[in-house]
Amino acid sequence: MENYKFKVKSSLSDINKDNWNSCANNNENEYNPFISYEFLYALEKSHSINHNTGWNSSYLILENEKKEILGCMPSFIKTNSMGEYVFDHDWANAYHRTGNSYYPKIQVSIPYTPVTGRRFLIKDELSYMKIIEGLSSKLLGLVEQIKASSAHITFLTKEEAGILKRLGWLIRKDQQFHWKNNNYNCFDDFLNELSSRKRKNIKKERQLFKDSSIEIEHITGEDIQEFHWDFFYKFYLDTTMKKWGQAYLNVEFFKMIGRSMKENILLVMAKRKNKYIAGALNFIGSNNLYGRNWGCIEDHKFLHFELCYYQAIEFAIKNNLKIVEAGAQGTHKISRGYSPETTYSAHWIREKNFSDAIEEYLKYEIKEVEKSKKILETYLPYKRGD
Question: Is 50 exceeded by the pLDDT of residue 386?
């Protein structure tokens, strides 16, 4: 890589948008909204990151002699472990007990977004392996330079995890629940693949809304207006405060993506007595629908399932999307047709003895995750084959 230059940029404002996007989504058939310049820039410009959040932008980029970006990474210097969804708090506590400081650490991920996607954003697929090796090396060099404890790459692809394992990184596994579109023509086609009891349960849950005064709207593209975000933000705050006590995202973030990413956003909004009472935010990729945030100001039985799961499934079927990802955790998704899927993260610990201890721990954890996945698959609601 001697003919190329590695640089670290503290703001996306210093990086050309088209250059970034040419690396992030160089294949229009595999568009992922979360690694796009628009999504990351909205996080930064709205001060949802880089403003007392612990997420300090340190984007690693690789340039050629023409100052064109050939590869880049959404990388951050972290001073906490908040908003990551791959939990290393126990690691941090153990590290501190050795008399060392776990923070700062380097995090390569999409803030507040537990969605799998490429983390090595590379424009030229012919140089794919060489650029990954170069970016990995420079990332570890940055660990040494700032005296960080470690580097972490979360929700990366299985292929990236395999490459990093060969480069000496520690690989960790976890699981999420995804719904898969088996070429269904309508929601009933999906229901017909379920066991009788599960099918009846879903029909019963959905019938409550058909019989109620609650109206459901799908809003996307030019139909999304700023007042929709004002309502949605109230819903987001209400649910966030109930669950976590901290709202990572602010209203300006939502309004910014509403302007810059409107064609890749689906708002599912519930209205009662001509007033919005709940909403779910989804992002639209080339093949996937990504459920992200939801909230409500009125409690109605099964409202969460209807807005976040069933409406998402219907939209995916109608628009020929292959997968619905409904966020992190939640075994209750299994009875709604969502299957456990493996997620990956990669870790580099600078202190050798601590790294060896983590490696031994991960051997045990991976076995437990794989065991759990097999058990959960036995509870899938689909009809059993002959």
Answer: no
Q: Is the pTM for the entire model greater than 0.85?
A: yes
Residue 296 main-chain phi, psi, to 5 deg: -150, 155
Work out the number of other CB atoms within 10 angstroms of the CB of residue 157. 15
CATH topology (fold) of 5-175+341-377: Aminopeptidase (3.40.630)
Q: Measuring CA to CA, how many Å separate 8 from each of 61, 63, 85, 106, 166?
A: 6, 11, 25, 12, 25
pLDDT, tens digit, for every residue of 144-165? 999 999 999 999 999 999 999 9
What span, in angstroms and rounded, lies between the C-alpha atoms of 317 and 325?
14
Q: In whole angstroms, what is the distance from residue 372 CA to residue 284 CA?
A: 30
Q: Where are the domains of the chain?
A: 5-175+341-377, 182-321
Q: List the beta bridge partners of residue 175.
A: 342
* Residue 308 CA: distances (Å) to CA of 85, 192, 266, 313, 338: 19, 21, 11, 9, 12
Tell whether domain 182-321 is in CATH 3.40.50.300: no
pLDDT in tens, 10-46: 999 999 999 999 999 887 778 999 999 999 999 999 9
